[in-house]
Amino acid sequence: xxxxxxxxxxxxxxxxxxxxxxxxxxxxxxxxxxxxxxxxxxxxxxxxxxxxxxxxxxxxxxxxxxxxxxxxxxxxxxxxxxxxxxxxxxxxxxxxxxxxxxxxxxxxxxxxxxxxxxxxxxxxxxxxxxxxxxxxxxxxxxxxxxxxxxxxxxxxxxxxxxxxxxxxxxxxxxxxxxxxxxxxxxxxxxxxxxxxxxxxxx
Length: 202
Description:
Elements: H1 3-17, H2 20-32, H3 38-49, H4 54-79, H5 89-121, H6 129-136, H7 139-166, H8 173-201
């Protein structure tokens, strides 16, 4: 691996956690306000949409990092090989799932942005409770969004494990084992938050 590829992979790993992992967590928490009713969600959504420099934040903290992470991630997905001599069989399964979920998320996120942000941008809809309720009223779309939430939370949690190893934070086998338990909790907690939000819209 040359220095350029090394740096690109490090950047890909970093952006997956900061800012994208933080954004996903925040996005799921805001959506979870739907469990408290229409007004609570609309107030939370309105607050986020009216943050200072929101356009700047969306472009440089969300969209550009997502595009780099997604496109370079797809490249990694189709060029990487397993590491049976370096990691356990389970880790290699998770390694493979990380690639598959990344490819699925490219499709899911593109569709989600089209159904929400793009529709708002062209004036076809408002970013409120009713928008999501209308989208999720279709059982197929509800199933698609459930898959999207679970895929995103798994991808983040498993990516967090890889991030900690890649950046030399968890080097020992014991540290990596404890990190596996921690990231499993992250996956479960964020999944519950995300699925509860989806159920609240229907």
